[in-house]
Each structure stands twice: as structure tokens, then as C-alpha cells.
Amino acid sequence: MRRWLASRALRRSTDTWPILPGSDKEPEGWSGWPEGKQFAVVLTHDVEGQTGLSRVKRLAELEKNLGFRSSFNLIPEGEYTASSELRGWLTQEGFEVGVHDLHHDGSLFRSYDDFRRQAPSINRYLKEWGATGFRAGFMFHNLDWIQQLDVDYDASTFDTDPFEPQPEGVGTIYPFWVDGKNGRPGYVELPYTLVQDSTLFLLLQEQTCSVWQRKLDWIAERGGMVLLNLHPDYMSPANEAPSPREFSNLHYVEFLSYINQRYSGKFWNVTPWELARWYRSQLPQGNAPSSPLLTKTSAG
Ligand SMILES: [Zn+2]
Q1: Which residues have their alpha-adjacent CB atom under 5 A from ion ligand 1?
Q2: 285 pLDDT exceeds 80?
Q3: Does 278 reside within a domain?
Q4: How far apart are alpha carbons 259 and 239 in whole angstroms?
Q5: Taking the complete model, does pTM exceed 0.90, yes or no?
Q6: What's the 139 CA to ligand 1 centre distance in angstroms?
Q7: How would you class 300 by CB atoms within 10 Å of its CB: exposed for 0-12, middle for 13-18, buried for 19 or more?
Q8: Ligand 1 centre from 31 Cα, in Å?
């Protein structure tokens, strides 16, 4: 059923996915990435269950061996315990830990009241974990509601993705600033810009990572942000045959190797928090609404 819906969404979206025309418009006042890098590469992971959790360290090691750092978004009250040992290990190794939803059961964005009721618990975990970033389950997003979270950045949106239950994208391959409201501070929004692994390999049944490569090339040429969201739960280690609900991590290795070979020295691999902190530092003091880099209006 999901695959049938996906093929229908695919047919309807050939002009707007995986590349959305116009999403490469630079933010006003944009002066490029640090150290003259051509584009940014941000790797993020949402850990959905026990299987994913058991693969976190090995995946981080794999990325490290290829010269990359990433973030792992963990569910505070889901089917596993995000131990302080694991969180400490990740940050010690130069990776980042983010908060992924609260229960991951679809209830967070059911209504404004639901969100408001759960927000204090999310803030408690952010503080306890020393985390500064958030991503909602199922990519539900409402940038006004997210104001209630004590975050430096949110990563629950995407440039274009017709396959999500809430398919409205933010239409940009750049980070953007979301103004504070009602006495709450603003935050940086980091949309993902490459199709999610689960959509690519499980839903659309792609056999290679060529869709990622093509989009990467397109973003690199325009100097945007490559932001990938992957799920260790669905990515089987190279020495294990993938089940029907998994894809081989060799696709991911191939993709990272492609970046290294084709763009050596030209990209800024950065964790989302570091990127958000840098982006914020580019904003004029006081974050006046008329400032450059602030003009992207928030969606949803
Ligand atoms: Zn999730």
C-alpha cells in the first residue's frame, strides 16, 4: 500500500522532486561557507528502535574511518534507553547527540495542546543530555510550536519530499533563521535536502545511491547544504545480508566515498549544532527582523 502511494506521489512530483526548482536561491546577505568551502555536508541519524541503537557505535566508527562526523538523534521515551554511556561516547568521539521526538508515537503533533504538554519533558531531556537540536518523529513540523523547545536548531523539515505524511517542504537548500515569538528566542532551521534512506531504498526500491549522488552534485554546484537523514535501524552492516526491511550500508559507504573522491577539500563536514552556531554568528547583533539571512519565511 505504501509503495503504491509512493509510486503515485512519484508520478505527481517529477517536476518538484528530488530537485525543487528555485530552492537554490541564496538567502539574502549570504556570503558563503567558512574557510571558502564550496558546500556543507551534514550527516544525521534517527535511531528508531533497539536494532538501530545496537548499530550506533559501529556506524559512527565507519563514518570516522572515512573522515566524517555526524549526529545521532535518540528517542527519550521510546522502546530503548539512550544510556549516558552511549551519549558520552558519541560526544567524546566528536559526534553529536540530538533529541528525536519524545515517545515517537505520532502524538506530539496531534494538536497544539499535545505539543504544549510534551514540550517541558523534551526540554528536560535536552538539558540532561546537553543537546541543542531536535527532530520530530515522522517529520511533522510546525515552526511556531517548536519555539517552545530550548533548542539552537530544529531539523524536522526538508526542501522537498512528497513522500512524507506532512509533505509541505520549506523550499530551500540552505539553513534559515526562525524568529523568536512571545518572548521565546529564535532558532536555526536545518532542512534535510537528500531523500531519506528509507524512502530511497525501502519505499522506492532503488538499487543504487545515484539519486543521492545527483542531488549532491546539484547542491554542490550551487553551494548549498547537503543534509542527509539516515536510520541505523534499516541499514544492515556490510557483513550481514539485508532483510526486506533493510538496505546494505555499502550504499552509504559508496556515497561517502564519492564525496571524498569528487570533492576532496571542497566541502565542510559539520555537525548540525556546529553549523547552527556558525549560522547564528553570521546574524547581525540583536537579530533584527530586517537583517540579511533572516528573510526566509517559515512554513507550516
Ligand atoms: Zn524517527
Answers
A1: 46, 137
A2: no
A3: yes
A4: 23
A5: yes
A6: 8
A7: middle
A8: 33
Report the pLDDT averaged over residues 249-258: 97
pLDDT digits (tens, 9 = 90+) for 134-176: 999 999 999 999 999 999 999 999 999 999 999 999 999 999 9
CA of 48 to the centre of ligand 1 (A): 5
Tell how far the Cα of 230 is from the centroid of ligand 1, in angstroms.
10
> Distance, CA 64 to ligand 1 centroid (Å)?
23
Domain CATH number, residue 52: 3.20.20.370
Mean pLDDT of 75-97: 98
Are 71 and 99 in contact, with CB atoms under 8 Å apart? Answer: no
1 found inside a domain: no
C-alpha 156 – ligand 1 centre gap (Å): 10
User: Residue 73 burial by CB count (10 A; 0-12/13-18/19+): exposed, middle or buried?
Assistant: buried
* 11 domain residue, yes or no: no
Give the Å distance between the CA of 229 and the centre of ligand 1: 10
